[in-house]
Specification:
Keywords: 4Fe-4S, Iron, Iron-sulfur, Metal-binding, Oxidoreductase. It comes from Spirosoma telluris. By secondary structure, the chain is α/β, with parallel strands linked by helices. Among the domains are: 25-178 and 436-510, FAD/NAD(P)-binding domain (3-Layer(bba) Sandwich), CATH 3.50.50; 238-356, no CATH class. 27% of the residues lie in helices and 17% in strands. It contains 13 helices and 21 strands. The strands form 6 sheets. Strands 1, 2, 3, 4, 5, 6 and 21 form a 7-stranded mixed beta sheet that branches. The chain has a 4-stranded mixed beta sheet with strand order 8-18-17-9, with no helix packed on it. The chain has a 4-stranded antiparallel beta sheet with strand order 11-12-10-13, with no helix packed on it. Helix 2 packs parallel to helix 12.
Length: 530
């Protein structure tokens, strides 16, 4: 039987929802919406504190991007000693799965899913799949319950929004934003529109002189200005050259003209190889298995520029269409490379030697469940973490975990700079040599808006600040702290904003969370402040 993508199921779910259906109610101490890595860890952390927890996941699988093709903790661009608490336990459990005595920071999606589900089962977290929030019912600033698109209702004393999109946060009336602030708004040198890359020799216009889809004109943009666009999305395919790989299928809506830039490139550069078009990571995977990603400086790659413009605030129906469009782009690109006669024979043969890894996403035709939503909404909470909190003012009195990933923004848009050249705009790649502390207030809404919600993924930050926080390992750290804080707030019958920071920090430390850049167990290899 042909599998159905999670966004197709979403459409079925949303189209069948009717207000008059009887509401089924479930009551919990902590309701976590979103089974991303941050959401799984938040749910387990709260449950280990004695809370009754339900985790509502949008797809048929927990683990977000860690179980949809991202098989790294990003340790190559982070300080490993900042991993602590439950996230570190996750990596240690992964190590055991691979027969290692210690953590592993590179892993396969199906192995990560096993570890996540083991953690949830052992913590006795109730898990609900294919759950989409329709509305939040509030009394004053308190969320009483949320209703799903299938009519089910979940009552909670505390709620955690751990989705990549922040839909619960938005439906609860919490202030949020998306896109990029101007340099002036927070005084960030890395903010706004950025032209830092060299122009690419490829005509951004069609044969009739019209701008190709996904491009914008240079005259519409000013260096450093604000922009409501977010960085590009793509799927993290798991590919294989092993005999059991699944050949790239031809999508129903295949349109080779979508890849005209590639056609032009290959005509002028027939020596082009697959690694010139997409990134292939072998990490510590079994031989012949590869993780993929959008290649930043390629003329064309897995990133579908312009395809995600309205995603952050889109409804479920529109998001389903965006998901499908990205999937069609991705399948079409791989099919084109492996089959189109305009592709040089050597590249065609090389690409045809790859296919989808047969041991991943086995109930979804070996295609990832999640689209790589690098950023969508961001909360405007009690505190906004910005560039200065990463590079200068790195300590916080209410610190709940450490961050250390480089400030990393993929390109946002393609800009035509002449009839024969374009530039990929928006890249940030700023190294970080020292960790920084994340404020508890960055995961709490303004008290005037909501007093029993925590948001550890669509965290309160500027775009620049988010570009360091936006990796699964850091979201897990934030989720760990959010889960413990939620359980404390429930036990103390207290607004999340009123929790005593010192008491929270003591409990986090008790659970093995490193909250300070001056932590005594630091290995001393980093240049830390006194």
């Amino acid at each position: 039987m042909k599998s159905i993508s999670f966004f197709c199921l979403l459409l079925i779910c949303c189209s069948s929802f009717q207000i008059e259906k009887p509401v089924q109610t479930n009551s919990y101490d902590v309701v976590v919406y979103g089974g991303t890595p941050g959401g799984v860890i938040a749910a387990v952390a709260a449950a280990r504190e004695g809370a009754r927890v339900v985790l509502l996941e949008q797809t048929r699988h927990v683990g977000g991007l860690n179980t949809s093709g991202i098989g790294t903790s990003e340790s190559e661009h982070m300080i490993e000693e900042t991993y602590s608490g439950l996230p570190l336990e996750f990596y240690e459990r992964l190590g055991k799965e691979y027969g290692k005595n210690g953590p592993t920071f590179y892993f396969e999606s199906h192995v990560a899913e096993k570890v996540y589900t083991d953690l949830l089962r052992e913590a006795k977290v109730t898990l609900v799949y294919e759950a989409f929030v329709q509305s939040a019912q509030k009394q004053g600033t308190v969320i009483q319950s949320i209703t799903l698109t299938n009519g089910k209702q979940f009552i909670g004393k505390a709620f955690i929004d751990a989705t990549y999109e922040g839909d619960l946060m938005a439906r609860a009336g919490v202030s949020h934003t998306h896109g990029r602030e101007s340099r002036e708004q927070y005084g960030e040198s890395l903010a706004g529109v950025r032209f830092i890359d060299a122009p690419i020799e490829a005509a951004p216009y069609d044969d009739n002189g019209h701008l190709l889809p996904g491009f914008v004109e240079r005259s519409t943009l000013t260096e450093g200005q604000a922009s409501d666009r977010v960085m590009n999305y793509n799927f993290r395919l798991m590919m294989s050259t092993r005999p059991d790989h699944r050949p790239f299928p031809k999508p129903d809506s295949y349109k080779p003209e979508r890849y005209v830039l590639l056609t032009r490139l290959l005509k002028n550069h027939p020596e082009t190889k697959l690694v010139d078009i997409i990134d292939l990571y072998s990490w510590n995977y079994p031989k012949g298995k590869f993780e993929t990603n959008n290649k930043q400086k390629a003329v064309i790659s897995l990133g579908h520029f312009g395809g995600n413009v309205d995603y952050p605030e889109a409804d479920y129906t529109r998001r389903s269409a965006i998901y499908q469009d990205h999937k069609d782009w991705t399948l079409g690109l791989m099919y084109y490379l492996a089959n189109d006669p305009s592709v040089p024979p050597a590249l065609r043969t090389e690409t045809a030697g790859y296919g989808f890894s047969a041991d991943e996403f086995t109930d979804n035709q070996n295609f990832p469940y999640y689209l790589y939503v690098r950023e969508a909404r961001r909360m405007i909470g009690a505190y906004v973490q910005t560039q200065k909190d990463i590079l200068q003012e790195r300590t916080k009195p209410d610190a709940i975990c450490l961050g250390s990933h480089w400030i990393d923004c993929h390109h946002v848009q393609r800009v035509a700079v002449s009839k024969t050249q374009f530039v990929n705009e928006g890249r940030i790649w700023e190294p970080i040599s020292q960790p920084y502390e994340v404020s508890y207030r960055a995961i709490t809404p303004k008290r005037s808006e909501c007093t029993n919600l925590l948001v550890p993924v669509c965290v309160s930050s500027s775009h620049v600040g988010f570009c360091s926080l936006r990796v699964e390992s850091t979201w897990m750290q934030l989720g760990n702290s959010a889960g413990i804080a939620a359980a404390m707030a429930v036990n103390q019958k207290m607004d999340v904003q009123k929790l005593n920071p010192k008491a929270l920090q003591q409990q986090l430390t008790k659970r093995g969370v490193i909250i300070s850049i001056n932590h005594q167990t630091w290995n001393g290899t980093q240049d830390l402040p006194k």
